[in-house]
Write a structure and sequence with these properties.
The complex is a heterodimer of chains A (about 45) and B (about 300). By secondary structure, chain A is mostly helical. Chain A is rod-shaped. The mean pLDDT of chain A is about 80. Chain B has about 300 residues and is mainly alpha-helical. Chain B has one domain. Helices cover about 70% and strands about 5% of the residues of chain B. Chain B has 13 helices and six strands. Chain B has a two-stranded antiparallel sheet. Chain B has a two-stranded antiparallel ribbon with strand order 3-4. The longest helix of chain B has 27 residues. Chain B is globular. Classes of the chains: A mainly alpha (about 45), B mainly alpha (about 300). The interface between A and B is medium-sized, with 17 and 23 residues.
Chain lengths: ~45, ~300
């Protein structure tokens, strides 16, 4: 690989990688539809 | 043991590997910042072999440390994955830079000296000094800041592609920043024969605000992969000595395991002070050798 190609790759590849990681982590963090929190526990006597 | 033109004591190399493994295990770093300069300065191993073989040793110590830290539930895997894309690419750049420096010489006061050792040793001194200044010196307030999470300037910055870091409970950290940070760390790794953990730790603690133990457990995956890629790259140009690597690795995994076990028991103040002493001693040894070369 030539120096110019390598330099171009150094600029573009981390950007693309960051985008992929962002999409993956956002998808993991997003709750699936219908997955709601459990109802609060009633501690009253 | 014969390495190039130099004869080195094998038991001394095994002891060095064990000591570096222990330090790496305690502080969650590969130990290359100690190993590579010490091989070159104390044992007089040719610098390009010290760099290539140092990376080989980091693969083992960082792998053992990573397994221990993961088992203890320490470290943020999302940062590791974000760093990987840049670091694997950066290590190639570092190795290219080292090859380019390899054949050049410089004249200082009428004495012609090879450029690579001067540049690399200056870089080691600057790097160790930066780490000491930013991390190991005592806090001005007298309060030990390393036990708890803060919001460092890099985690407050509004940058694109920000994600949540659940393990350290930081709400928004930019993956873009982390990927380019990985590129820089990879470059240092390929050029200096270090894993990059010693530079990453202050960035995580002071830049992002990670607690020390979480910072120690973060970056070990990327260290291991980057060092493996760097070792392969340096092995292709004959910079890795297998007997030297085997001597260094003989006791390193066990001592790295003992070191990472010790991390959970030692208070943050003791960790910081111990790290400070190790950094200063290594910096003094490299600076002294550099001074002798340019005098």
């Amino acid at each position: 690989m030539g120096d110019v190609t390598y330099a171009a790759l150094c600029v573009v590849a981390p950007l693309a990688w960051a985008l992929v990681m962002y999409v993956v982590f956002e998808a993991i963090d997003r709750k699936p539809p219908g997955d709601t929190a459990p109802p609060p526990v009633d501690y009253s006597i | 043991m014969q390495i190039g033109d130099v004869t080195v004591s094998t038991p001394a190399l095994v002891a060095l590997g064990a000591a570096v493994g222990f330090v790496g295990g305690v502080f969650g770093v590969g130990g290359g910042f100690l190993l590579t300069p010490l091989l070159a300065v104390v044992f007089h191993v040719p610098l390009h072999i010290a760099v290539g073989t140092g990376l080989c040793q980091i693969v083992a110590t960082s792998l053992v440390s990573m397994l221990k830290f993961r088992r203890a539930g320490l470290g943020e895997l999302r940062v590791d994955l974000g760093l990987l894309g840049g670091s694997v690419l950066g290590v190639e750049g570092g190795a290219r830079a080292l090859s380019a420096l390899g054949t050049r010489t410089v004249s200082i006061g009428g004495v012609v000296a090879p450029l690579a050792p001067l540049v690399l040793q200056t870089a080691y001194v600057l790097m160790l000094g930066f780490v000491w200044l930013s991390f190991a010196r005592p806090s001005r307030s007298g309060v030990e800041p390393l036990d708890y999470l803060r919001f460092g300037p890099l985690s407050r910055a509004r940058l694109p592609l920000s994600v949540r870091l659940p393990a350290v409970q930081l709400p928004r950290v930019s993956m873009l920043l982390i990927a380019y940070l990985g590129l820089g760390l990879g470059f240092l790794s390929g050029l200096l024969g270090i894993g990059g953990g010693v530079v990453l730790m202050p960035v995580l603690v002071h830049g992002f605000g990670f607690p020390l133990r979480q910072a120690a457990g973060t970056g070990l995956l990327v260290l291991c992969v980057t060092a493996a890629v760097g070792t392969a790259r340096h092995a292709m140009v004959g910079n890795v000595s297998l007997p030297l690597a085997m001597a260094l690795l003989a006791a390193a995994p066990v001592s790295a395991m003992l070191g990472s076990r010790a991390t959970k028991r030692l208070p943050a103040t003791a960790l910081r002070r111990g790290f400070s002493v190790v950094l200063l001693l290594t910096m003094a040894a490299v600076a002294w050798d550099l001074w002798r070369k340019v005098r």
